[in-house]
Every structure is written in C-alpha cells, then in structure tokens.
Amino acid sequence: MQYTLSQLSDEVGGKVVGNGDVTIRRVASIQDAGAEEITFLSSSKYAKHLQSTKAEAVILTEELVDASPVASLVVKNPRAVYARIVALLYPAYQPAPQIHTSAVIDASAHVAETAFIGPHAVIEAGAAIYENAYIGPGCVIGRDSRIGAHTVINANVSIYHDCHLGENCIVHSGTTIGADGFGFEHDAGEWVKIPQVGGVRIGNNVEIGACSTVDRGALNHTVIDDGVKLDNHIQIAHNVKVGANTVMSNGVGVAGSTSIGKNCLIGGMTGIRDHIEITDNVMITAMSLVSKSLTKAGSYSSNTPIDDTRAWRKNTARFRQLDEMARRLKQLEKKLESN
Q1: Catalytic residue flag (residue 238)
Q2: Helices then strands (H, E): number in the chain?
Q3: Any idea where the domains of the chain sit in the sequence?
Q4: Which terminus, N or C, of the chain has the lesser number of Cβ atoms within 10 Å?
C-alpha cells in the first residue's frame, strides 16, 4: 500500500507541515528510516535523532515541529497515530472464505459462508462460527462455543465447550480457553476434583496473546469484558472477571474468583490472589504481589528493587527483624509516654 502524507492526514487526522505530496509506503524507526518511509517521535529521549533522520516524513507533536527537517504530521499522540498508519500501510491478511477439506465440522455446527476454516481444524457439535471469522490450522472449537464476526483464532488454539467470544477479537497461537479451573477439595487423604460447570464469556475487541490460559468458571462464567488486552503467558483462573479496557503484560497470574475493574494496567509477572476486588483505574507495577483488595484508584507496587547481593542479604535479614523491632519500638513509646 502507498499514500501521500496528505492522504494519511485525511485518514488519521493531524496537520501536515511541509510537503504533503511525499509518498509513504513503509514505516521505520527514526534512526533507520529512509526514502518513502514514515517514522514517529513520541519520547524526548529520541529527539536527538530528529535532525539526522532520513525519513520521508515524521509524526510528532506541535512542540517539536519547528525542529523537524522533513515533512511532518503534527498530532497530539504520535504513537497512537503511528499505530493507525501502520494498519493502513500493512493491512491485515484477509483470506478468501473457505472450509479446508481436512477440517472436521459436526453436522450440527453453524459456519457462516464468509468464514475461513483452516486445515485440520475441528468444529464440534452446536458450535457457531459467525461472519468473516478466521479459524486457523489445527484449532479446536468445542461444542456449543461461539466465535463472533471478524474474530481471528490463530493456529493451534484450543477453545473448550461453552465458550463465547465476541466480535473483532484476536487469539494468538497456543492459547487455551475454557480448560477446567483448578478446583479440588481435600477429603479423607485424597483430593476430590470439583467439576467446573461454568463457561467463558469474552467480549468484543479483546486480544489474547500466545500461550495464555483462560479457565472456565466453577459455577458462574469467567468473564473478560470488551477491549481487554492480554499479553503472552497469562493465566486467568476460574470465575475471574476482568473489566473493560484493562491491559495485562506478560506473565500475569490471576487466581480464582477475583474481580478486576475497568481501565486497569497490570505490569508483567504480577501475581494476584483469589477472592479479592481491584477497582477501576488501578495501575500495578511489574512483579508485584497483590494479596488484598484495592478499593481506591491509583498506582500500586510491592516489588523490591534489585541491589548488589551483599546489600540485599543485609536488607533481607533486617526485614525479618521488623516485627521484633516494631514490638520494641512500641515498648519505648509507652515508656516515653509514662515519663
């Protein structure tokens, strides 16, 4: 695909400064961009590269436009506009509708005429695949599950029974949706499995990264609301609820029956315990442990910064002494108050 800078402005907004007729075919970093390529500048730490860029055009804010030696697209959020331009220049692959001859589809399943069903995919009884959905090679769509219009299920995804995905979702390879939640009860020296009879309900415009898991509910459904974005290697346990437009980075683990609000940002490798509530608009920094409910919006952290080993050992030893130190401090305070 190719556009002039003015045509891109018409598509995504922004003000053109300089030659709007330059041709744009590709995107590149500000250091590496060249002819017919557009770049963007959203961080001041890269501003030093602006004067030397060989890009055909650059996306930037009003504050930096006077320093630009090339044609510019002036916007409020360069990174967001860059993302939209990438989508225009590199449109998503749209395969022609087909059902591959090696696919196995139960007679009671519904597959829209505009859907794509790849090689060796399996569509079980009562499942429904709606308009323009893409089911990649080797996928399994379990009985009575639903895949919404324009949703992309990439290769080798397993979706168990009674799992509903909305429209315009993307699920990346290796992900499993609807496996049993981790439910066992100890009785008479053995673990008794608790059947997981709920399903999974996923809204519209949700993206789930590679090798992630969303477990089915034990009684009620596990729910992922509209606009949620999950990175790779994320675990969502049974009966978890994730509010709209919440984002989780790689390696997050959410234990069962926890409710997470809307518009939350959860950093990588964070662990969230079971049966707690996190309100809307919470940011949790990477590698935190969330062991209690968070009822107020804001930023939370619990990880300890890295240090050299000797200092870390000393501080760890002192951490173990905090309870005794607190007890002694209270005793001293009582003595001071009595004097």
Answers
A1: yes
A2: 4, 39
A3: 3-89, 98-300, 312-338
A4: C
For 104-158, write each residue's pLDDT tens digit: 999 999 999 999 999 999 999 999 999 999 999 999 999 999 999 999 999 999 9
The residue written with tokens 């692959």 in the block is: 93
Summarised one tens digit per residue, pLDDT across range 71-115 is 999 999 999 999 999 999 999 888 999 999 999 999 999 999 999
How far are the Cα atoms of 163, 324, 325, 326, 331 from residue 336, in angstroms, in the given order? 64, 19, 16, 15, 9
Dihedrals phi, psi of 178, to nearest 5 degrees: 95, 10
Gyration radius (Cα) of the chain, Å: 26
- 223 Cβ contact list (under 8 Å, min separation 6): 200, 201, 202, 240, 241, 242
Q: Are 177 and 158 in contact (CB under 8 A)?
A: yes
Q: Rounded to whole angstroms, how far apart are CA atoms 20 and 289?
A: 50
Give kind and range of the element (H or E) at residue 79.
helix 78-89
- 2 to 6, 15, 28, 79, 93: CA distances (angstroms): 12, 19, 14, 20, 16
Q: Give yes or no for residue 70 having a pLDDT over 90.
A: yes
Cα 204 to Cα 228: distance, rounded to the nearest angstrom: 9
Q: Choose, from 150, 164, 172, 238, the residue flagged as catalytic.
A: 238
Q: Which of 211, 248, 206 is nearest to 233 (CA)?
A: 211
Tokens 């075919």 found at: 25
Domains 3-89 and 98-300 share a fold: no
User: Rounded to an integer, what distance in angstroms lies between the CA atom of residue 104 and that of residue 70?
Assistant: 55
pTM of the model: 0.90
Beta carbons of 216 and 163 less than 8 angstroms apart: yes
CATH of 3-89, picked from 2.30.40.10, 3.40.1390.10, 3.40.50.80, 3.40.50.720, is: 3.40.1390.10
Residues 6+ apart with CB under 8 A from 48: none
| Superfamily in which the 98-300 domain is placed by CATH | Hexapeptide repeat proteins (2.160.10.10)
